[in-house]
Amino acid sequence: xxxxxxxxxxxxxxxxxxxxxxxxxxxxxxxxxxxxxxxxxxxxxxxxxxxxxxxxxxxxxxxxxxxxxxxxxxxxxxxxxxxxxxxxxxxxxxxxxxxxxxxxxxxxxxxxxxxxxxxxxxxxxxxxxxxxxxxxxxxxxxxxxxxxxxxxxxxxxxxxxxxxxxxxxxxxxxxxxxxxxxxxxxxxxxxxxxxxxxxxxxxxxxxxxxxxxxxxxxxxxxxxxxxxxxxxxxxxxxxxxxxxxxxxxxxxxxxx
Length: 256
Hints:
Blueprint: E1 3-8, E2 11-12, E3 34-35, H1 38-53, E4 57-64, H2 69-76, E5 82-87, H3 95-111, E6 118-122, H4 133-141, E7 145-155, E8 158-164, E9 169-175, E10 178-182, H5 194-202, E11 206-208, H6 242-251
Parallel strand pairs: 1-4, 1-6, 4-5, 5-11, 6-10, 7-10
Antiparallel strand pairs: 2-3, 7-8, 8-9
Helix pairs in contact: 3-4
C-alpha cells in the first residue's frame, strides 16, 4: 500500500490575457477564474495512478487561502480520498517558505505513524515559475528526488520514474520514501465524474495553520511586457485600395 501526498496550488487561469493585481505582486484571477496549473494536474493524475495500482491512497495538499479548498476538492473529485489546507498568505511566501509548510505536514504525519511514502508536486507553479519547491521539500525531508517525471510506477518499495531527456527517455529508480516533481505532457489528466464531485463535497478537509515566519521570495513586483509592435499596414479602404493591393502582390511575386 502506497500512501501519496500530492501538492497543488490555486493559481489564476493564464490561458487568456494575463492581468496583474493593482500592486503588481501577482496575477489577478477575478476576471479569468482560478484553477491548478498543468504540471499540478498531471501530478494529481500520476499520484492517483500510483495509488490505484498499489491499493494505496492519495491526500491532496494546498498552501494558500481558504478559497484553495475549491482546488483541493477538484482534485479529490478525481480519486483522492483526503485533503489538507495550510491556510496562509502564500503571496508573502517564497519557495523556501512553501516547501517548509509541505515538509511540516509530512513530518507531522510521520510522527503520528502514517508516513507518506511518496510526495508528488508539479514541476513548478503556473504563476511564479520558481522551479524550487519540490527540490526544497526533498532537501528538508532528506529524501531522494527525481524532477521532470512524466510517468511513475511503484513496485516493492521502489519508485520508477520516466523522464524525457534531451536525447532519449531516461528511467530512474528511487527507494521510498521519495519526492518527485511532474512535468506536464506524460499523462492525460482524467475528468471528474458526477459521483466523484458529489463525494468530494462531503469530505471534511483538514485545516491547519502555517509554521514559522515567512522570509518571502524577494520579488519586488511583476511586469507584463508590452505586446510586440504590429507590422500590419493599412493601405486603403474598399475599391480604392485595389491598385495598392495589386502593387503589393506584384512585389511579393504572387502576380506576374
